[in-house]
Design brief:
Layout lengths: L1 E5 L18 H16 L6 E4 L1 H11 L8 E3 L1 E4 L2 E2 L1 H10 L3 E8 L4 E10 L7 E5 L22 E3 L1
Parallel strand pairs: 2-7, 3-6, 4-7, 6-9
Antiparallel strand pairs: 1-8, 2-8, 4-5, 6-7
């Protein structure tokens, strides 16, 4: 299940406000999640996937702190698959801190995160909201794979 969301750079101001609707990105996220749920009821989106350039814009618009130069939204797909261990290893050698998920705006809490995934095969002008069942992906684990003892940054 997936829903394509238009996400053109020209449609947003530098602070993440949608130019036509005058809504901030977080308000739009709520609308995106509602539209997904209405289309695929009873399911809720649990993934936002985007081209690295689109995810960079999302980082800028939703930055958790004032210094967004140190923050990077979305894990990399490794050979087309979600591989949290490799992403955590890459992050240890990088200069940025990866945000792996953001809190749902529809549920208004971090207990229902939207995991962030970069996919170079997608257009730079869209985001894709998806529902991935716990047993469908994430390398067969029962929940999103976070190795024990690791801290994964959530923003919401």
């Amino acid at each position: 299940m997936e829903k394509i969301i238009p996400f053109k750079k020209a449609d947003y101001s530098d602070d993440g406000t949608h130019i036509t609707s005058d809504k901030f990105i977080m308000e739009l996220q709520t609308e995106w999640e509602e539209a997904f749920h209405n289309q695929f009821n009873p399911y809720f989106a649990n993934v936002i996937e985007g081209h690295p350039s689109a995810m960079l814009r999302l980082t800028k618009y939703m930055a958790c702190d004032e210094d967004d130069s140190n923050t990077d939204f979305g894990m990399e797909l490794i050979d087309g698959e979600i591989d949290i261990d490799t992403n955590l290893a890459i992050e240890k050698f990088g200069k940025t801190q990866t945000v792996y998920a953001i809190g749902s705006q529809l549920h208004d809490d971090e207990d229902n995160p939207l995991f962030l995934i970069k996919n170079e095969n997608l257009s730079e002008e869209i985001l894709v909201l998806k529902y991935i069942a716990d047993d469908e992906d994430f390398e067969g684990s029962e929940t999103f794979p976070v190795p024990s003892g690791e801290t994964v940054k959530l923003c919401g």
